[in-house]
Write a structure and sequence with these properties.
The chain has about 130 residues and is α+β, with helices and mostly antiparallel strands. The protein is about 30% helix and about 25% strand.
Length: about 130
Amino acid sequence: MPDTPAAPTARPTPTAAAALSAEDGKLVVLARGARARVGAVEGAAVRDQDGRTYAAASVALPSLTLTALQLAVASAVAAGASRLEAAVVVTEASTLDGAGHAVVRDLAADAPIHVAAPDGTVLGTVTQ
């Protein structure tokens, strides 16, 4: 089995918030719901190439830790997604975690990753 690189630790800083499309606005709602349902630190949602959406919350167990974006992307891949159109993470942090950023970029080099506050206010967008 090939060596897998360690998860990136860089925390991309979102650029100024852009106006969201209606479809990206739905991702914010889904991510907020996933976070609130279980009282998680983060919630995330992604949309795949077919317009299907996947939402998830962060997981912190003694034997497994996943960011919300990692779990949302994993759910999309497990359902057959091969590309992402957009992603949203709802968090109290002002930056995007490196691991979440990397997993989205595994499926889409150019998909916007919107970072939103718990109240749904979009703080910015990572496009790189």
